[in-house]
Sequence to fold (1212 residues):
Amino acid sequence: MSKRHVSAIVNGDAVEFLTDPGMTLLDALRDELELTGSKEGCGSGDCGACSVVVDGRLVCSCLMLAAEAEGRRIETIEGMAQASDLHPLQRKFLEHAALQCGFCTPGILVASKALLDANPDPTETEVRYWLAGNLCRCTGYDKIIRAVMDAAAEMRQARVVA
Amino acid sequence: MPQFDYLSPTTAEDAAKALAASGARALSGGTDLLVQLRSGRTSPSAIVDLKRIAGAIGIREEAGGFVVGAATPGAIIGEHAALARAWPGVVEAANLIGSTQIQGRASLAGNLCNASPAADSVPAMIAARAVCVIVGPAGRREAPVEAIGTAPGRTSLAPGEFVLEIRLPKRPAHASDAYLRLIPRTEMDIAVAGAGVNLVLDASGVVTEAHVALGAVAPTALLVEAAGAALLGTKLDEAALDKLDAAARAACRPIDDKRGTTEYRIKIAGVLARRAALIAYQRAGGRA
Amino acid sequence: MTDTLERPDVKPDLKVVGTRPIRPDGAEKVTGRAQFGADFNMPGQLVGKVLRSPHAHARIVSIDAKKARALPGVKAVVTGADFPNLADEFHEGGEAASNLRDLAMNVMARDKALYDGHAVAAVAATSTAIADEALALIKVTYEVLPHVIEVEAAMAPDAPVLHAHMYTEGLEERPTLPSNIARRNRIARGDLDAGFAAAEVVVQDRYVTQAVHQGYIEPHACVASWAADGQCNVWSSSQGQFMVRTYCAKVLGLEMSNIRVTPAEIGGGFGGKTTVYLEPLALALSRQSGHPVKMVMNREEVFRATGPTSGAVMYVKLGAKKDGTIVAADVELKYQAGAFAGSPVGAGSMTALACYDIPNFAITGWDVVSNCPKVAAYRAPGAPIAAFAVESAVDELARKLDMDPIALREKNGVKNGVKASYGPTFNAIGYLETLAAIKTCPQYAMPLGPNQGRGVAVGFWFNVGGESTAAVNIGEDGSAVVVTGNPDIGGSRASMAIMAAEVLGVPVEQVRPMVADTASIGFSMLTGGSRTTFATGMAVVQAAEKVVAQLKRRAAVIWDVAPDQVEWANGAAVCRDPAKSTGKTLTLEGLAAQSARTGGPISAQVSLNAQGAGPGFGVHVCDVEIDPETGHVTVLRYTAAQDVGRAIHPSYVEGQVQGGVAQGVGWALNEEYIFDRDGKMENAGFLDYRVPVASDLPMIDAILVEVPNPRHPFGAKGVGEVPIVPPLAAVANAVRAAIGVRMTTLPLSPPKIRAALDAKAG
Fold:
């Protein structure tokens, strides 16, 4: 079976790649586009390390065929910082020591940004349930939840000022 | 990952044609299909992506009811305020499928046609008396949701057929529904047991119509008529709830597996049916 | 009793130690740039895949790989025949000793497959699809043998025997028949019978835990390249690049200098990456194919073929006086080792009663092989299992005595000067201080509602030191690079930078910590046993001190004063010679700029074998609520206090405590290996192997108790392992309080609790 040509927008830039029909979006991002920030922890949608946003929806890129990405707009961890300015979530994760090994971190950041884009003032319970699909085995989640809440507060403050 | 053809037709008729080929499988959200592909449990000759068919993603109100496109992800279902007001049980069941990420993709039709006995949205849809619009090589037909699953992983759909949309009926006054499931954690698990309850009350709070469906306690989700009947003519007093509990348990034919024991599943089916009934009753405006 | 606590000789005005700077590797990790095991690629690399046994126990009659080799795109196929057979040889790795013979056979089966998932062949091909196809073309003929998984079943005289050469060690008489019991160990003191005879209250029970996995989110991954001249490179995610080098050299019969191992960032290990699975296979495939080979496990392989830690059956009997004095303890521990000998029952035995000062006790441990994956180290290996049994029994004792569980532990708790149950005499421990911290924490006084319960448990871990190397190199601008040989698994770069900055007297941002490959730094034992901040940290401190000594000498040269007339303060040399101008300074930057004319580059390296890691104690309190109809347990509140010596970077110390608690709660509530009738793992994925998710847990309060370790320059003790020891029992004791039934078998999943409630109701 021949490869398919896929055109998509990744982190604001037009990209093109060839894919086997069976290739997942995660494989395409990592192997074809060399965006290795999205990780594979399970390949079955149970860990969230491969989280990306497709047309505004948070998804597991391991559960999407690369061929489905045709014409879609995809955001990954590599697009989160603006040039050298870290996103408030990225800064707060560092300030709160919300990562230990750092492997789940890209997926959790992408998922957290999707949360704050949809809900700028989440409760602790809302953050915990939103992130239930992102496994972290190092931190016990405590500092992650605090970092997300703190980033949300800072971003709300910034909006008020602006 | 195995090799296959990927097709993304833009009309229902083309999709039916593509699916009629031997070994073709329909793809909506893909949250079950991709896992099966990867593990080798399925090796289709072609994947037919339904998402580019007009109307496959979206919710519209029609004749007082709702029509949910086959590939509409849970996240969109959860954001539809009118649907959530009319069918809160169906919406909460759809939103219980997997994580936020899964909600970005997983659909009602996919949940139904994957034919897992533990699918969360199916008991809720059955209790809601939802109807599937099925498209196939022979044209369109309709079937109630409970007619789709025939055994774990098996459906009554003929070759080439797929579910294009799911229709939820018009709601009378004093009506509501609820869905509950039991999982070992708080998220991310497959239901050990699930119960959907759909009630219609009269102005005084007496149940005039009741449908109860159970998940994960038999090879397919069950519509338990005796459980619904136990609530008719009552205000969900303790005796009615006991009858409901007993009828729910009596209908169960579960298996022992890594997710739960037979004994436990049966007990929990009764507990969940009771609790879901009370929630639905309260939502419908009743006061127990 | 003389209880003079030695205080470390540290300046009271620490400027950097104890602060919370941003970790030096942080920006790379929050932007997705950090390279983990699977993120590295080599030009021309092949894809390597492993064929695994579908049987729990089977003789490998033959392997026919002709069709696989003939498949276009397949470049190499290896089986057990491609690896040398090794003799018994024990290698001390830092967490536990490994028998290299067994390690080699675990990497690739020879005549028998010993568990579902055991590697039996591996291929390298030009694509994943071709590699998968090749695996399907390898024909392995098995003679399926009866299997055994559960530990007591494996100990039975009629159990299927895994290793015909295994005769139980540690018995009074050498047995005449082989068995699955690799070893019995025994620790005893006093007169057990007399102790129980004097006891006024006795509790005893049988406790069961299941095998659980470390559950790191990053699957094992490596790239290996074997050059035509025999020089090899390996990039891999592990807890020790030197460990990978040693094991690859041994398994393949190579010289260590011909293998260079570069550590990738490691996506969690918890002990599970203290051994090799893929690296020797990738090297063998690379040798045969002449190409670099990349191998990445999928999650199912991680569960079926790596980790876990032991399932166990334990018997605990405690005897006490009515005043709460524990006078006798009899503990028997039976641990699964997996397919090869070497369960952590030794450490389980040594830690089981380590928190208690008991005159008469006996601890018997059994190391038992069975047809499940060879256990790997898992955070305080062996200790949480034993603590589950002992701490549950102590809780029962407190109930029988009607005593507060903390008061009972205070009454019997070890103090400085007490000879530990496992041998040495305690010194500078902070156990009683840690108990006091929980007794006075807000949670301990909070009222409980209906169906709620509170549980207390304590835990101990030795912590270890060991061999480490560190180098400190000063740049021409005065900035510092700290090089170590220990992978940073949870923020150790930050603590290395802090300690170097403290000694050098510079801001932490002026220090760049690096983790070097095996050719670029001296030998270092792996990151494990909670040793890195202690032992490698000590090497960093000593190297930084050597640099400071050099800087002082160079300032003396420049000022033409005696070296002892120079002090080092605030990142600068200070002249103390009254004959010259006292108080003039030369900064690190200034000295670095002049290094060429004062003796050349400023640099120091220290290799040491650190001793005196201070043991750690933790005291946890857990509040739960039970849904009596479903048996579902909700953890409402959790506070963990721990003696950490001194927290170098408190945020990452808290993180270690919180992470350990979360893993322990998972172990207590839902995690378990489930095997089907044929011995195959039924839940080899994160869907049904249920690690805690964010919504399962409350905030976890970490109380850091600081009783400094006199053997570390800044007082640090290991912190990573203690916090997983108490939670199993803390949760179980809370459940006991909530439902009135003692649950003795983990996990405490909803069906078990509901069944217990139904049994109680009759």
Observations:
- Chain C has a mean pLDDT of 96.
- The two ends of chain C are 53 Å apart (CA to CA).
